[in-house]
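To close the section, here is one more complete example, presented without commentary so you can practise reading it yourself. The ligand is S-adenosylmethionine.
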Amino acid sequence: MTPAARLAASIELLSEVMSFQRPADAVANNFFRDRRYIGGGDRRAISARIWDILRHWKKLEWWLAQMNVQVPSSRLMCAGWAVLSGQPFEHVQALFSGGRYAPDALTNKEKMILAGLVGRTLEVASMPRAVRLEMPEWLMPLLEERFGKELEKEAKALLQPASLDIRVNLLKTSCEKALAALAEEKIMAEKSPLSPWGIRIDGRISITSSALFRSGDIEIQDEGSQLIALLAEAQPGQRVMDYCAGAGGKTLGMAMAMQNQGHIVACDVSSHRLEAAVKRLRRAGVHNVERHLLVEGDKWLKRQKARFDRVLVDAPCTGTGTWRRNPDGRLRLTQTDLDELKVKQRNILQTASRLVKPGGRLIYATCSLLSQENQAQVEAFLQANPDFQQLWLKEIDSAQILPEAMRQKPFLELTPASYGTDGFFCSVLQRQTMEQKDSQQTE
Ligand SMILES: C[S@@+](CC[C@H](N)C(=O)[O-])C[C@H]1O[C@@H](n2cnc3c(N)ncnc32)[C@H](O)[C@@H]1O
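Output:
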């Protein structure tokens, strides 16, 4: 594609994304599926542009509002981003040539607006803090409470593109062999800093077309997500429930830790997500997983009381920790969403806790940065359920490979600024054994 054709496609894609009804990655997947003629390189370039615009959305809107544009078009967002990123105005104007496959020529009004942006930078000190940090205004007090003086650093880290992390499938290979195989495919990679199963890849490449991915030797998974599967400490022969399994990211990690021995039930309320797990499980050579679609008043679930050694609740959440990958998440999230999610998380945690055997563990995880979805949920749960207690990371064998500072905490808390991962929270809660319960009752 010519640069002008890429720009035209970007404008078209952005106009679909900016209704913010659906996640941008889902919109982009559909867009490219309907336009198979757009090749891999063009697709990556168009997506990179759109993601960068989404990362700077509030600042762009702010600048256009200074030019009296209250409802910017996707054309102005794309062109404004280019000018504010330092591309020469004449160059941008030339791309709007009106030629075949190119965007229509800029109108006089558009030219005037864009000329007003020449020589400006995307960020200026006079912008409101929420705009500068690209955060929803209503979320600022919660983030200030959570991060205090670290907020600027955290917010900036959340604006950087995420690394490409993969988990090596130890059912099929080892990290050393996977690194060597990637090198043979001319893919630069290194062991990831925290996860014993992780590899971090240099640059943006399409790893899904590599031989190693297709053979199931590796799986795409953020390092933080790998650590949650690690902390679940699922062991060979155990009965494990992945209560919010989705497309099976953490199920796969736990199946590997269990060496394919024992039994995992992967549950979810979404049939299409559970369905998406099938291909991944098969590719990974995992065969100890049963899938179960949860339904209203689920009778099967009622029969599973106290039957599991491990119950992982990877709860639906605001996803604030993944905004490096999903920058549009910040533009779609509302206070009502957060309020509804908190209720949902509380209910899921309570229901899932009934499945844990005495002496078994309930693992609560989110990819949220907000205390309201994390510690606060755990604290409320522990208050209402005194037969569970929180294990500190230093009490969990699998956590002993983590840095000392991390292990001295009652839970795992990862942020992009602190560890270069997505934002994650994980707390491990152990249910009393029968003996502990009896001795407590006789005291
Ligand atoms: C954070 S995602 C899970 C991601 C998945 N564990 C992984 O590692 O790929 C949360 C999941 O919770 C599911 N969910 C939402 N409400 C639920 C409920 N009431 N019970 C069980 N799962 C639910 C969603 O469909 C979604 O797949």
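Once you have examined the tokens, check your reading against these statements. The chain has three domains: 3-127, 164-220, 223-442. The longest strand covers residues 356-366.
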